[in-house]
Design goal:
With 119 residues, this protein is an all-beta fold. Helices cover 0% and strands 56% of the residues. The strands form two sheets. Strands 2, 4, 5, 6, 9, 10 and 11 form a seven-stranded mixed sheet that branches. Strands 1-3-8-7 form a four-stranded antiparallel sheet, with no helix packed on it. It is globular. The termini are far apart. The mean pLDDT is 96.
Length: 119
């Protein structure tokens, strides 16, 4: 199992930036892909961005392309989500998740961090 702890959320104004961090511990050697997801009130959880641990290849949801950047520091077992040009519709709880070797999806999840963007 991998333990994940997110940080960096907060209340900002539209157009501002935030950087989220996700620190992983435990069986981090088994992680294949790390992802950021978000869930707004009344909405289903959606993927925001993912990054492959070995190659750093990335995926972004269309709604955040060009504004958000996912990156990782394997030495620190930390994944980041740089969020620029934030919009009110980015308001959500952001979760970090890990896909492990042999897993069928994202097996481990953090507790989430709130991001609120005011207009």
């Amino acid at each position: 199992q991998v333990q994940l702890v997110e940080s960096g959320g907060g209340l900002v104004q539209a157009g501002d930036s935030l950087r989220l961090s996700c620190a992983a511990s435990g069986r981090t050697f088994s992680v294949v892909v790390m992802g950021w997801f978000r869930q707004a009130p009344g909405n289903e959880r959606e993927v925001v961005a993912t990054i492959r641990r070995s190659t750093s290849s990335t995926y972004y949801a269309d709604s955040v392309k060009g504004r958000f950047t996912i990156s990782r520091d394997n030495a620190k077992n930390t994944v980041y989500l740089q969020m620029n040009s934030l919009k009110p519709e980015d308001t959500a709880v952001y979760y970090c998740a890990a896909n492990r070797i042999g897993g069928s999806g994202f097996d481990d999840w953090g507790q989430g961090t709130q991001v609120t963007v005011s207009s």
